[in-house]
Amino acid sequence: MGTLSIVAWSVISIVSLIYIYFKKKYSFWKDRGVNYVEPTFPLGNLPSRKAHFKDFITNVYKYKNENPFVGAYIIAKPIVIPTSLDFVQNILVKDFSNFHERGAYSNEEDDPLSAHMFNVDGEKWKLLRTKLSPTFTSGKMKFMFPTVVDVANRFNGSLADIVKPGPGSELEIRDLLARFTTDVIGSCAFGIECNSLKDPKSAFRFYGRKIFEDAPIGAGTLLLAFQYPDLARKLHITQTRKEVINFFMNTVRETIAYREKNNVKRNDFMNFLIQLKNGESIDDERSNQMRKLTMEEVAAQAFLFFAAGFETSSTTMTYSLYELALNPEIQEKARQEINDVLANHEGELTYEAVQEMRYIDQIISEALRKYPPVVFLFRKAAQDYRIPNTKTIIEKGMEIMIPVYCIHHDPAIYPNPETFDPERFTPEQIRNRHPTSFLGFGDGPRNCVGLRFGRMQTRIGLITLLRNYRFKPSRKTAIPLIFDSELVILTPKGGMYLEIERI
What we know:
Oligomer: single chain
Membrane topology: Peripheral membrane protein
Number of strands: 9
Organism: Hermetia illucens (Black soldier fly)
CATH class: Mainly Alpha
Strand content: 5-15%
Radius of gyration: 24 Å
GO molecular function, one term: heme binding
Number of helices: 19
C-alpha cells in the first residue's frame, strides 16, 4: 500500500471516529426522551455566525413547552436550559445543596486573581462567602455611603466642566459612567483616589478597561474553558492579562503594607479584607473565626469587587439613562421624586433620602430586567437529581444554564417585554410574579453578594445626574441597540451617545 493510500485511510478513519463520537453524543437527549433542540455538527446548538451569547440561549429558549427544560448542546456537551420558573427556583434556592457549584473556570496557578468567590466552588466558596458576607450588610453600606456621595459630587463637577449652559452636548456616556464607578470602587475597595474622572488614562481606568475589553481570550475560548477546565489549565489558559494580574497584586500588597505600617483604618472593603487576612472577625460572630485569607485570596476578592462593581453598575446606569432619554415622561417623574424627597431632607443626599426614592429603584430594576449584564447563570449538579413531579433525572456533573435574559424577556412573565416600564416593579407587581422571575442579581445562597453596594452606587449616580441634567437621544444614539458579541457582559456596541443638557 502506497504512502498516499495510508494517509487517505488514516484521514478517513479519523473522520469516521469523530463522526461516530459526535453522533453518539448528539443522541443524549433523544435517548432520554426529553424536549431538546436538534444539534448541528460540530458546534451543537451554538450559532455558526458571530453573535452575542444571548442569541444562542434565546434560540434554544424558544423551544420551551410544558416540560421544565430544553436540552441543548455546546459543541458535544449536553446542557440543561431551564424554562420552568419552579425548576429555576429549585436549582437556585430550594435544592441549592445539589446545585451549589457554578463550574466556572479558574486557574489559580497561572492567574491567582481568577480564584475569587464568583469562580470557586466547594469548601473554598463556602469559606469565602461566610467571611465576606458581613462586609455587605446595610450597616457597612452606611459607612461607605459618604465616600460614594463624595465621588458622585466630584463626578458632577467634572461633568459640569464638559456640559456648558445652553444647548445640550452630545457625549459618550458609557465611558463617563465607567470612570465614575471606577473612582467609587477604587476608593471603597482600595482607599485610593483614582482620579479617572479628570484623567481618563489613570491606571485604574486603564487596567479596568483591559479586564473586559482586552481580555487574553474571547468569549468562545472562555466558554470552551468552562466546558473543559482541566484541559484549559494544562494549556495555561487565563482570563486575565499578565500585566493586569501584576498591577492588582502589587496594588493590594502595597496598600496593605502601607496601612499596616501606619495603622490606617478606614470603613472600606480593603479594611475588611485586611481583618480577614489577619484572622479577625468582621461582625464578631464566631462563624467567621476560620483560617486566615492568604495575600493571593485577598487580592482575588479585591479584584472581583473592583471588576464586578465598576462594570455592572456603570452598564446598568448606561441602560437606565438610555431608556430615560427615550421616555422623557419617565425621566421627569424620576426627577420630580428626587426633588420632592430632597426637599424633605434640606436638599442633602442622605442614606435615608436615597432609601425613600422608590421610583428610582424601580427604574434600576427595570433596566436590569431589560438589559441584565449577565445573560445566564451557570450551575452544576453535584448528584443525580430527579426533577419533582417528573421521571427526568439530571445526572451528576450535568451543567445547567439558567437563561436570565430569556426569562426577563418572556411575554408570559412580562407582557410587552421590550417596553421599558418601571411600574413592573411596584411592591404589588413583584408580589404577583414568581419569586425567580427577576434574576438581575441571581438568587439563593450564590446570589450577588455585593447587590446592596451595586444598588447604592447606581442610585447615587442616577440621582446626581438626573438632579442636574436632562438626557435626550442624539444623532448618534443607536435605536434599536446592537450588542457587542465580543464581550460576555451585555454591552452596547460602539458606546452609548446621548445629548446632555444642564438644568
